[in-house]
Amino acid sequence: MKTKQDILNWIEENRQPFIDLSDKIWENPELANREFISSQLQADFLEGQGFKITWDLGGLNTAFLAEWGEGKPVIGFAGEYDALGGLSQKAQTAQEPLIPGAAGHACGHNLLGVGCLLAAVAAKQYLEANHQGGTVRYYGCPAEEAGDGKVYMARAGVFNDLDAAFNYHPDYLNFASKGSAVAVTDIKFRFHGRSAHAGGSPHLGRSALDAVELMNVGVNYLREHVTSNVRMHYVITNGGDAPNIVPPEAEVWYFLRAPLREELNQVTERVKRIARGAAIMTGTEVEIIFQGACSHLLNNHVLADLQYENMKVIGPIPFTEADYEQALQINEGYPPEIRDNNLIAGMPPAGKAIAEALKGISLAAENYPSFDIDYIATGSTDVGDLSLVTPLSMLGTACWPTGAPGHTWGITAAGRLPMGHKGMLHAARIMALSAIDCFNDPEILIKARQEFEKAMQGKPYICPIPDEVQPHIYPRP
After folding, report:
1. Rounded CA gap, 208 and 217, in Å?
2. For residue range 213-252, what is the model confidence (pLDDT) as tens digits?
3. Residue 266, exposed/middle/buried by CB under 10 A (0-12, 13-18, 19+)?
4. Mean pLDDT of the chain
5. C-alpha–C-alpha distance, residues 111 and 397, integer Å
6. Which residue, among 462, 473, 469, has the nearest Cα to 155 in the 3D structure?
7. Residue of 329, 320, 325 lying closest to 95 (CA atoms)
8. What's the rounded Cα separation, in Å, for the pair 224 and 215?
9. What is the C-alpha to C-alpha distance for residues 64 and 29, in angstroms, rounded to an integer?
10. Residue 410 and residue 326 in contact, taking contact as beta carbons nearer than 8 Å
């Protein structure tokens, strides 16, 4: 019979193929819904480990399910693999793009996906060696940066029979989250007017750009009349072609965020009314284009506590002096006002003391209990939609230098350096042991489900994306 310690030993003995897989994905950064190489690499790897592969989940051609075993419980791991545009970076401690202007893994999704994948394989190894029933699933989830990959998958019902799910994200600290993140709606407002010579006959024109600007003024006044956790941000994606032409077409792109979908729906309707009012004022027409959406995040405290107990068994990440030195060099690539305040800036109140204690330390190896209870982060993730279908625990592990802000070059670099690999392996160990506990102790899943049902208050999951809106699909090359 294999024990949990045997699985930890197995991960250590077999770590290199997983590191190599993460590095291959890092070397082939792909944007949301275009992750053809990354998804295929993962699917092929898992097929070689004995998993059955099913493609095109939720209508997404870079989404897949890898499944092994049979019967209950069914434990899932949700991985990702999309990169970010314009954040290419060499695997070094000084800023230098690998390919100027190209994409890069500045959110660590190469580590995220393979960390969850490794946990799934390790859980399978345990069940197989012990001739034990149960089902292990790995979900290859595209387009997290677009905020909707898992939403389409949830709409298709692919998570419905899960007993529990685990997800991890590279971070600055080792902790299992008990907090939340806000829901988001991704929406464009395209105004149609009438062109005219801006100097010779402006009275004949109807400016679509005027409508965009009036809409933005209205939304900015709305900020005074929403709760403090609401966020509204926009970019003008089309403002016209030349100053001497009254713009017949203009467009503004909004992200709207709120703690709960009910509140966000109300805010979204108010913004839509502002857009229609701007169209009336300018004699233009407005086209409202729903791009996507995701729900708020519901972390399961029972599963979070389970992960922390396994962290204590495993101990801190074994960073070396070379790791600390590389992290320090990356930190020094940022201005002092950024690197010195990066860790504390996004920390919930209960974590401020931790951040203060880590000032001047380039990597955080220790494990921490959950310090974000009742905290609502103002960022968003499509993991939220998975968390409203089944009990889920989102884990963070230290893969990044403490002074490097997310979605920047230093994060890309860390994802290909030993510090990133070690953080990924740490996450895989924690999730694998926690999944094994769920397979061995039915009481854990009963308590996790009871907590989940109480939090949901009997309400079913409602997908925030209307049925008529379909995912963004790109043809395979």
Report:
1. 14
2. 999 999 999 999 999 889 999 999 999 999 999 999 999 9
3. middle
4. 97
5. 11
6. 462
7. 329
8. 15
9. 18
10. no
